[in-house]
Each structure stands twice: as C-alpha cells, then as structure tokens.
Design brief:
Elements lengths: L22 H6 L6 E3 L2 E3 L5 E4 L2 H4 L8 H13 L11 H13 L4 E7 L2 H18 L7 E5 L8 H6 L3 H5 L9 E4 L5 H4 L15 H9 L4 E6 L15 H11 L3 E5 L13 H5 L5 E4 L11 E6 H8 L17 H16 L2 H17 L7 E7 L2 E6 L8 H12 L2 E2 L1 E3 L2 E4 L7 H15 L3
Parallel strand pairs: 3-13, 5-6, 5-7, 7-8, 8-9
Antiparallel strand pairs: 1-2, 2-3, 4-10, 9-10, 11-12, 12-15, 14-15
Helix pairs in contact: 3-13, 4-13, 5-12, 14-16
Bound molecules: pyridoxal-5'-phosphate.
Pyridoxal-5'-phosphate (PLP) binds next to helix 5.
C-alpha cells in the first residue's frame, strides 16, 4: 500500500480520475493538501495555505473542529449505520428538528440526501409528485435559469444553465424544461455593492413562459438566490420577490437552491431569510456538516408535506437513498449546527460584510478587473478574458494565489472567495492583499 503522505509519482496519480479537474494538467503539476485546522490548510511539504473558499463553500465553521470529530467518532462507536427505509434512529429526527428551528417558518420538514446534486433531484421529484398528488398531474414542466448550477444529476443539469455541463448530454436532458434569463448585467450593474439595482424585470420572463405553456403545465421554478458556481451573481433588488409573486399567482412551486448560500454565508441562516422571500423548498448540502461528512437535505414546507401525509396510507414518496440520514452524517450535522449556534456563525457574516466589501472594492482599478461583486462573505472578481482563451486569466490568478499561500476559486473568468465564517479581519486583509498583488503582477 502506498504511503498517503509521501510525494506521489506521476503514475501513482493516474488511478484517480479527478472530478471537474484538468487531470493531465493537474497531474503534471499537482496541488495537494494534506492537513487542515482553523482557517488554514497545509500542503504535504508543510506550506501553510489560508483558506479563502471554505474548502468548496462548505467548511463554514473552519477546519478540524473537535466537536465534530468527537461526535463522528462517538457515533461510529455506537452505531455506524442504520437502514433508513421503514426504520429510523434518533439522530435523524434530532437533526431534522434542529434544522427546522433555523429555517424559514413554513419549512418544517426535512428530506435527507447525500449531496447537493441529490437534493436538487429530490426537490424536483417532490415538486412533480406534489402536483400529481393534488390532482394536477399535467404540471410537469420545470423552469431553471441560464448560468445556474444545480449539481450534476440529470435533473440538475437539465434545469442548470452551464453550457459545458449540458453539452455532452444534450440529447439525454429532461424534457419539458425551460430557462429564465440569467441576471448578470455588467453594463448596468458592474461594481455594485451588495444587491445590484437593475434587473428585477428579468423575473417577468416567467410570465412569458407561463403565457407560452400555460401555468397548468408548469410544476416549479428553481433558482440559486445567489448563483455561486457561475461566477457569483447576486440577485437584483426585487428580483426574488417578483419570482415569488408570479409563482404564487400561478400555483407554481418555488425552490431555492441554497447549497452555497445556506448556513450563514449571506449573513442570515438562509438566503431566503436574508432576502425576505420564502420558497416552498430549499435544497442544502455543504455547510450542513461543515463539509466533514457528505450530506444534503431538502427543506419542505408544511403545505407540500401535508398533501403527501393526507394521501393514501403506505409509502407516500417512492424516493430515498441508502444513506439518507446516515447516522454519522447526522452526528456531524448536529455538532456543526451546535457550533454555528454557539459561535453566532449563522449571522457573523453581517458583522464582517462592511470590511469585506471595502477590501473587495479596493480591487477596482487593478489590471483586467471588469467587475467586483459582493454579498455577506461572498466575493466575485470578474476579469477581462484573454481573447480566445476564456478562463485562463482567472486560472492563472488561482494558481499564483495558491503559490503565495491563499486558496481562492476560479470559475470561468471570475475569481470567487467565500471564506470560513470564523475568518478574522486580519485574515480578510491577507486574502485581499495577496489577491491584489497577484492581479497587479507584483
Ligand atoms: C447551488 C448548488 N447546487 C448544487 C450543487 C451540487 O452539490 P454537490 O456537489 O454536493 O452535488 C452545488 C455545488 O457546488 C451548488 O453550488
């Protein structure tokens, strides 16, 4: 067996086909992480890296939290697994109850999954099943949005709006899916601080789709309140409210995909509360267990859940995963929510947002910076693409920041930051001084 901490040869890197990675490029010059604690990672050589992206938008309470480690270890000792179909275990119910306490009021029920992708597919399936259960089986159309990322299941890529994630599987996408226009409008909104002023009217495109298909054929609209993976797109003022109004007027369910917005990222427990718009379902993952054990969830409103519970006796929803409410994930989730509550992390981003915003907008004027967008503890810096080589400029920034000890994220020509919510102002300054120096070629 090879030693996991020893440097690996090129041939040892071949067995692992890495996800969303340029495998050949990576394997020619690997970037490895071997240890993590608090706000930092360490490379196998012992180089310290400041984590400006919470791993991948998930380690909101910072790395290596003892409470989570102990809860997971103790659960593994007590009971490593319990079947979730027609059986239960206390931690599943306990976690559902804790989640409901921090959720928008009508969302009182939790369906557990193992990832964001599964949460999205689950929410879409619940939406279709709900309309059918209510006698409106013709409501089958799903509406997503351009530049949306909803994971990689067939449901998620169908309602998603990222061309590379759809292109190869184009003929196999779900039928009956439409897309709203995205809300990115740099001509009017570049360098907005917080929510941009322009673009609420883009929600009205939903009216056009309703006129085209008739509401009686439309099941649900799914959007990320803040689109993360396609480069941090903040919703224009009034946009989400408008979507909610139109959905309500036409009996359409509204789903918020909060896989990245959830658990304090915006300054509220969920973006739904932050923006004052309550959807019928919220999809979650990532921060639910602080990234420690894979887990996702769908928060479901009373209205939706009750319809199923008033239906015929027996299994109400033919859906679930072997690892739904996995006891170890539940233990990690309970410990994580405990930390969030005790340390005020679900609202801490609010107190840091002004400092974050100032530091972010100081990047304006750096070479090739064509937009800076921020909300809570989220940042997107958009760079002018190199002609004919989209994404390479931001990738170069990502690599150089890593070489200088700061982990940022690249998505197309956007550099995104989303640090653990335990970040200190001095660490924010370090992130921005490193990013600024790299952008300025210093
Ligand atoms: C908004 C959103 N939805 C869904 C997903 C998919 O989550 P997972 O990678 O856990 O399947 C992601 C992942 O980044 C996401 O950002």
């Amino acid at each position: 067996m090879s030693n996991a901490t020893a440097p690996m040869s090129r041939s040892e890197l071949e067995a692992f086909w890495m996800p969303f990675t340029a495998n050949r490029q990576f394997k020619a010059k690997p970037r490895l992480l071997a240890k993590a604690s608090g706000m930092h990672y360490w490379t196998p050589e012992g180089r310290q890296i400041l984590d400006a992206v919470a791993g991948l938008w998930c380690v909101n309470a910072g790395h290596g939290r003892r409470e989570i480690v102990q809860a997971v270890a103790s659960q593994l000792e007590t009971m490593e697994y319990a079947p979730p179909f027609q059986m239960g275990h206390p931690a599943g119910f306990a976690l559902a109850n804790e989640l409901v306490k921090i959720s928008p009021a009508p969302l009182k029920h939790v369906f557990f999954t193992n990832s964001g992708s599964e949460s999205v597919d689950t929410a879409l399936k619940i939406a279709l099943a709900w309309h059918r259960a209510r006698g409106e089986a013709s409501r089958t159309r799903l509406i997503g949005r351009e530049r949306a990322y909803h994971g990689v299941g067939f449901g998620g890529i169908s309602v998603g709006g990222m061309a590379p994630n759809r292109k190869v599987w184009s003929a196999s996408l779900l039928p009956g899916v439409d897309h709203l226009p995205h809300t990115h409008d740099p001509a009017r909104n570049a360098f907005s601080r917080g929510v941009p002023a322009h673009g609420a009217e883009r929600a009205d495109e939903l009216e056009r789709l309703i006129a085209l298909h008739d509401a009686s054929n439309i099941a649900a609209v799914i959007v990320e309140p803040i689109a993360g993976s396609t480069g941090v797109l903040i919703p224009p003022r009034g946009y989400l409210q408008r979507l909610r109004e139109i959905c309500d007027a036409h009996g359409i369910l509204l789903i918020f995909d909060e896989v990245i917005c959830g658990f304090g990222r915006t300054g509220s427990p969920f973006a739904a509360q932050e923006f004052g718009v309550t959807p019928d379902m919220i999809t979650l993952a990532k921060g639910l267990t602080n990234g420690s054990v894979p887990m996702g969830a769908v928060l479901v409103s009373d209205r939706v859940y009750d319809t199923f519970m008033q239906g015929p006796e027996g299994i109400e929803l033919f859906h679930g995963y072997t690892y739904s409410a996995h006891p170890v994930a539940c233990a990690a989730g309970l410990a994580t929510l405990g930390i969030y509550q005790r340390e005020g992390l679900l609202t801490r981003a609010k107190s840091l947002a002004a400092h974050w915003e100032e530091a972010a907008h100081a990047l304006r004027g750096a070479p090739h910076v064509i937009d800076v967008r921020n909300y809570g503890l989220i940042l997107g810096v958009e760079l002018e693409p190199i002609p004919g080589k989209p994404g390479t400029r931001a990738f170069d920034v990502f690599v150089k920041c890593f070489e200088r000890g700061v982990l940022v994220r690249q998505s197309g020509d956007v550099v995104a930051l989303s640090p653990p919510l335990i970040v200190e102002p001095s660490q924010i300054d370090q992130m921005f001084s490193t990013l600024g120096a790299v952008l300025r070629g210093q």
